[in-house]
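[Q] Does anyone have a clean structure-token version of this?
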Amino acid sequence: MIDKNIVKKYVEEWLQDKDYFLVDIEISADNRIVVEIDHADGVWIEDCVELSRYIEDHLDREKEDFELEVGSAGLGQPFKVVQQYKNFIGKDVEVLCTDGKKMKGVLSSVDEPMFTVTVEEKVKEEGKKRPVIQAVEHTFNMNEVKYCKYLINFK
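[A] Here you go.
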């Protein structure tokens, strides 16, 4: 099986001096390599092709055959690395807590490993009969939620 650290080394070499960042590398038992990269402004297919060729040029198919897929972290997929959180500050996100509760709000800040989501909620104010809608901040640990992902709006 191809060593994940070797693939990571080649990806990091290619990423030097570029605004892209590594999201994930997965290697299956049958040497199917999947590399996900991302960029604040989106990923260009030409760059995926260039990275794929770079990795292929450095791995030896004669020694060990493999299948390689290089792509972008999908829009609307759960965030995997801190840079993804930072890229979506000010955007609508959905958080699935470990207790199964979902929250939708605006990702307002990121201070690794914590992030804050501002949610519009009904809050009962003292002395008032009806609850009022207020912006309430909820802070989470990135490692203690099932996921946080960008909410795509078609408005």
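[Q] Thanks! Anything notable?
[A] The chain has a mean pLDDT of 94.
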